[in-house]
What we know:
Blueprint: E1 4-9, H1 11-19, E2 24-27, E3 37-42, E4 48-55, E5 59-63, E6 66-83, H2 84-91, E7 99-101, H3 106-115, E8 118-122
Parallel strand pairs: 1-3
Antiparallel strand pairs: 1-7, 2-6, 3-4, 4-6, 5-6, 6-8
Amino acid sequence: MKNEILYSLKPQYMDMILKGDKTHEYRNVIPKVIPKRLWFYITKPKYQLEYIVDVLEPIFKPDKDSKIAFPISKIYKIQNPISLKDLREKYNFTPPQGFVYMSKYPNLYYDIMNNFNYEQNLR
Length: 123
């Protein structure tokens, strides 16, 4: 859980990942603990936690605009995405401005891992 990070992501970027047009997640802040898995809270207009991706070893300074890039290896879709309303009510969730370690939301993490169905979409 400590090596898993939750990011907010715009729907158009998630669509690019699903289509295979975007194979890396680029970010400007390097986390202290390098993640093996990224969780994506999809922003307006969806406002829901919907995807989890496994990532490979990151690339540092991949281009002039980013400090780190996470190569995406597997994509998981949560079959019943969790709305922002439910996230707030059940888990005291706040969408991250940058990122947050999933260890901040242990109940959410365990509920997803143990009680939710998710399908794997291999690349």
